[in-house]
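Replying to the earlier thread about multi-chain prediction with a worked example.

Input:
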Amino acid sequence: MMPKQEIIAVLLVIICPIVIVWAAFSHQSILKQANTVQLSAQAPEKGNFSPQTIKIKKGKEITLMIRNVDVTSHGFIVPLLGIRVKEIKAGELEKVTFTIDEAGKYPFYCSVWCSDYHMQMRGTLIVE
Ligand SMILES: [Cu+2]
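Result:
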């Protein structure tokens, strides 16, 4: 018969990988639930907001991760919803979390004067 300690050691070797795999999978599902949307910001002549159309579900919490991939500051504002990120500096990432309960099309804009084409730096948030 195996001594008690050996049995415990064998059990740990079996259980540990199961726990690790389970932890990895449950973490993944948490990320999915968090509903993260990536948005990159660049002056219009270099690529504008990308994507320029963002589709989300109403009533679901969304975290928008806005990465400024440009060499000048940009901003992010959705006037109809009162969502605002004052300034996203060059190369930086800003996050904004919100839940929108009403379906509709909400234009968003850059709120920092970033180039001669600044006024064209915009997109649409579609809530379905
Ligand atoms: Cu801009």
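The mean pLDDT is 92.

Feel free to reuse this layout for your own posts.
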